[in-house]
Hints:
Chain A: This is Urea ABC transporter permease subunit UrtB. Chain A: Pfam families: BPD_transp_2. The complex is a heterodimer. Chain A has helices at residues 2-31, 39-53, 59-77, 86-108, 130-152, 154-164, 166-171, 176-198, 208-223, 228-248, 251-268, and strands at residues 124-125, 128-129. Chain A is mostly helical. Chain A has a single domain (2-111, 123-268), classed as ABC transporter involved in vitamin B12 uptake, BtuC (Orthogonal Bundle). Chain A is globular. Chain B is of the alpha/beta class. Chain B has two domains: 17-146 and 285-359, Rossmann fold (3-Layer(aba) Sandwich), CATH 3.40.50.2300; 149-276 and 363-401, Response regulator (Rossmann fold). Chain B has 13 helices and 15 strands. Chain B has a five-stranded parallel sheet, with helices on both faces. Chain B has a four-stranded parallel sheet with strand order 7-6-8-9, with helices on both faces. The longest helix of chain B is centred in the first third of the chain and has 20 residues, at 45-64. Chain B is globular. The relative contact order of chain B is 0.13. Classes of the chains: A mainly alpha, B alpha/beta. At the A-B interface, helix 1, helix 4, helix 5, helix 9 and helix 10 of A face helix 2, strand 7, helix 7, helix 8 and helix 9 of B.
Amino acid sequence: MAAFLNQLPIGLSIGAVLLLIALGLTFTFGQMGVINMAHGEFIMAGAYTAYLMGGLLPALPVAFLVAGVMGLILERAAIRHFYGRPLDTLLLTWGVSLVLQQLARDLFGAPNVQVPAPSWLAGGVGILPYNRLFIMGLAVAGVVAVWVYLTRTGLGRRTQAVVQNRQLAATSGIDTGRVDMLTFFIGSGLAGVAGVALTLIGPVGPALGTYYIVDAFLVVVAGGLGQLRGAVLAAVALGLLNSYAEFWSDASLAKVIVFAVIIAFLQVRPQGMFVLRSRVLT
Amino acid sequence: MRISRPIVAALLALALAACGSGAEPAASSSEIKVGLLHSLSGTMAISEVTVRDAELLAIEEINKAGGVLGKKLVPVVEDGASDWPTFAEKATKLIRQDKVATVFGGWTSASRKAMLPVFERYKALLWYPVQYEGLESSPYIFYTGATTNQQIIPGLDYLKEQGKKKLFLVGSDYVFPRTANKIIKAYAAANGMEILGEEYTPLGHTEYSTLVNKVVQAKPDAVFNTLNGDSNVAFFKQLKSAGATAEAMPVLSVSIAEEEVTGIGVDNIAGHPVAWNYYQTTETPANEAFVKAYKAKYGANKVTSDPMEAGYNAVYLWAEAVKKAGSTDVAAVKKAAPGIALERPEGLVIIDGENQHMYKTARIGIIQPDGLIKQVWDSGKPIKPDPYLKGYPWAAGLAAGQ
Lengths: 282, 402
């Protein structure tokens, strides 16, 4: 029974990890419709930033900048020439992700590196270690920041306008190219932040991004494209589902169950939990 | 100017591939081509790149000492890319196109199983350098890593000696952990030990909180860990932050060597035992020279580990067999190999004629705060390889079940 109850906070903490890795993707994939397979490598860039800086907290803003600038370069140099061509973008960014993985391997070596966890994160409350609580806190902070940005700032409102109707936004005087740049910068930067947090619980190596990219897309798709509340709800639901499915079966079967549930769910609601209402899309 | 090794290797491979596909592929009379086939990219690259490096070192040393039969060894490096069909494809390329004399390669059992039919079909030789689950003995493979009775069973003997009666089994979901756990369960049944749980996770899995919860709630005396690759990092980090300690619940690992300790973080794994045949700290004259040469070639901060040493040995053992045979012909080398005994970094290694595995000394070590492994137990002498566990009555039926 204790083990069963333990799975509840565990599920929430898995959900927080999912939310953190998917938050950036709700921007680039959700808002802009860009299937960015290199998103995982921006997470990796964040993790390696923490490794180079040797500390967790100072690495958070730096990783945001590093991954954000990488995303900005990718968007300006390549992706913007492929808007409206999702399959080409997929291939392009997948290639970029392989290049970035090899780059990390050449720069830092193939073996994993270690990022020391700060001593104040040792220990925990009940089943939840402090580092898991830290990740949950960071995920909540990230969601609040994104929500404030999208709804309370001029830039954020312009972003939403471009998402809802690009042509109308452009004719209203919004520089859509600049909005795209900024959106990609923030989305990629959030991946960098997730990367820093993941050093607390997972491996830090060139292949790091590949472990999280599929889960990140699952959350965004299940939640509904471009929907912040959808991403939050989907992350928590998938976290709990994962936790209990693995508890009653095993890790391999839990993955199968999660996929099966998502496929079934998308049959009923093909556009995810929440649907963006827009004249362009309908 | 410093160009990184993977790039050099890739260029070298490209250049050699270009030569091979060009005019006459037959090697010039002053050279012997040998293939090195490991994952240089993908999830297994973390481990396999180091084995490739150790094999290159052995080739360089042998060439410096005059080569084999007066000829220089020329490595042809290929990338298995952590993808099993790619291993089979590249093995075919090395044998058919490059016409290499032998191949050193593989790490996961899945890659070996993928390559096995290729080597048997073309009657070519593979030297496989990693400890594995046993129950195999291909006439075209030499196994220079441990089989189960040289690693897993000594590991269980050690746990039994320590009075650990209740075990929890954790492993990656593929052939090695599943077969290893079958053996562990049979051993436990015969030795009055209890298995409290058996859990598998997919390769590359990083979310271990549920599994850690299951392990902690079951309260085992010890955990037997057959996880492979990056999953170990996530497992040990999350186990430690759940408050588990090496004193109360040691986790015996069979796939974590010096190379992996740094990535896991010494803080997370210090004090836990591992089972291998070789450690960087193993005290033999040959090891002193090996560690020195490896650090000189690849950097003072590099460590040496069991699979690296087994790969390094493989090149020397093959060279010795070629010298004895007077030819690189596969049949002649196979005939010459049995009984070859060399003093290697891990101590005496003898090629068994019956199953082409090696006599090896088993060693249990404890991971130290400096990241190295200190030996706390050894088998005293090289153990005869027994891949089908014929010498263990409790294991009867395991081989038949395969």
